[in-house]
């Protein structure tokens, strides 16, 4: 079998990438730092069916994307080029983006802290028995970890932040974590950006729920309404508030001047004689109470009718048949 040349491999890769761009409109840009070949193969198997994972050099991917845009006029795909930075790969999919992202996250595997590795998270060693014999206390002393000897083994007294996020792992930290059997880091494909038919957005958008969307939509309507009211520009959201404000202004003018209109007459009457307002409130309360009293009267009347029917003489005879 003749081995393909470097130029032939580039041509084949270019053809494959262009074919995937034509076939799929949704792409997840994923970081692949510290992801092994076996782990990547398992991810490919898990996504098989509606998704394709493609890795490659950034320069080759950018070149293929640019050529495809020039040949097809699909300028939207050019938005993908700024995202091809670092050790990244592409997941082409026809499925639900959130489900695909969750499926990718399942394939994270634990990894030991290797010397010189930049810590992606804080590493905290919890207190407890380490199972190490007292001769191993030198590791703890170098790292200023408080310990005591308990039943012939070393016991850590308090929680200790061994490595901070962003710091490089030292030889002492790596050796101690290895002795304790702690694999503090986990690695897998991490979604960095989402491309959907020419648009690019953050992966946090995939975690939005319907309640989040409703809340953001309501906040947007509130902002539009506030802006429309501030500049006196009528919109569907601001119109009810404008009408109410206009009515308030007209009512204020009517109260302050001799000008009047039917809706303002009652307000003017209440302002001239506040006792009328108290009477009106009392009348409303009385109506509510009267309804309850009428209901009680009907119940009482019904009871009286029942009692009268019990006292009937059964056609002129008593219960014992005497006339």
Report on this structure:
- With 323 residues, the chain is an alpha+beta fold.
- The protein contains ten helices and twelve strands.
- The strands form four sheets. The chain has a five-stranded antiparallel beta sheet with strand order 2-3-1-11-12, sandwiched between helices. Strands 6-8-7 form a three-stranded antiparallel beta sheet, with no helix packed on it. A two-stranded antiparallel ribbon has the order 4-10.
- A hairpin with a 2-residue loop joins β7 and β8.
- α9 crosses α10 (274-310).
Number of distinct beta strands: 12
Low-confidence stretches: 305-323
Radius of gyration: 40 Å
Order of helices and strands: HEHEHEHEEEHEEEHEEEHHHH
Gross morphology = flat
- Percent range for β-strand residues: 15-25%
Q: What can be said about the biggest beta sheet?
A: 5 strands, antiparallel
Q: Strand arrangement, largest sheet? A: 2-3-1-11-12
- List the total number of helices: 10
Mean pLDDT: 81
Our measurement of the CA-to-CA distance between the termini, rounded to an integer number of angstroms, reads 130 Å
What level of helicity do the residues show?
A: 40-55%
Estimated structural class: alpha+beta
């Amino acid at each position: 079998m003749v081995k393909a040349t470097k130029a032939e491999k580039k041509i084949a890769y270019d053809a494959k990438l262009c074919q995937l761009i034509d076939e799929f409109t949704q792409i997840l840009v994923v970081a692949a730092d510290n992801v092994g070949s076996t782990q990547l193969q398992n991810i490919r198997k898990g996504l098989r069916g509606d998704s394709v994972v493609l890795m490659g050099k950034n320069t080759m991917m950018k070149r293929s994307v640019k050529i495809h845009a020039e040949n097809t006029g699909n300028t939207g795909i050019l938005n993908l080029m700024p995202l091809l930075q670092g050790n990244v790969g592409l997941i082409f999919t026809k499925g639900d983006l959130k489900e695909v992202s969750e499926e990718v996250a399942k394939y994270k595997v634990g990894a030991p802290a290797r010397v010189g590795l930049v810590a992606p998270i804080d590493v905290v060693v919890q207190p407890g028995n380490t199972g190490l014999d007292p001769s191993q206390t030198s590791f703890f002393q170098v790292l200023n970890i408080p310990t005591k000897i308990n039943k012939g083994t070393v016991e850590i007294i308090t929680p200790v932040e061994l490595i901070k996020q962003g710091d490089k792992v030292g030889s002492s930290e790596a050796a101690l974590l290895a002795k304790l059997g702690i694999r503090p880091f986990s690695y897998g494909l991490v979604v960095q950006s989402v491309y959907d038919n020419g648009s690019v957005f953050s992966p946090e958008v995939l975690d939005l729920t319907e309640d989040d969307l409703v809340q953001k939509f309501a906040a947007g309507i509130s902002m539009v309404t506030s802006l429309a009211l501030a500049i006196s520009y009528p919109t569907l959201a601001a119109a009810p508030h404008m009408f109410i404000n206009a009515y308030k202004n007209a009512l204020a003018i009517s109260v302050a001047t001799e000008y009047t209109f039917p809706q303002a007459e009652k307000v003017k009457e209440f302002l001239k004689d506040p006792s009328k307002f108290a009477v009106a409130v009392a009348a409303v309360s009385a109506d509510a109470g009267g309804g309850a009293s009428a209901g009680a009267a009907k119940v009482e009347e019904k009871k009286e009718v029942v009692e009268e029917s019990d006292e009937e003489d059964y056609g002129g005879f008593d219960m014992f048949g005497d006339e």
